[in-house]
Amino acid sequence: MTLDDSKQNDAGSKGKTRRGFAVMNPERQREIARLGGIAAHRSGHAHQFTTEEARAAGKKRHEPRNERPA
Questions:
Q1: How far is CA 33 from the centre of its chain?
Q2: How far apart are CA 7 and CA 5, in angstroms?
């Protein structure tokens, strides 16, 4: 049995291993996400909604799907 085999057996019946964010504690995940958000805003890649965009999104969220434009 190799090291990879033992990891797969521990992960469950599908044979998938938990990696990355899946094995981190939630506090560490939030910290990494927070730092990523800060970096995105500093570099200008983060989108900030205007009041009009937020209002349109809220209206769209509350209307039935079959009434939304395609």
A1: 9
A2: 5
Question: What does the pLDDT read at residue 23?
Answer: 93
Tell me the pTM: 0.46
Q: Which residue has 């805003």 as its token pair?
A: 41
Name the CA radius of gyration of the chain, rounded: 21
What one-character-per-residue DSSP string does 10-35 give? HH-TT-PPP-GGGGS-HHHHHHHHHH
Per-residue pLDDT tens digits for 32-50: 999 999 999 999 888 888 9
The C-alpha atoms of residue 34 and residue 37 are separated, in whole angstroms, by 5
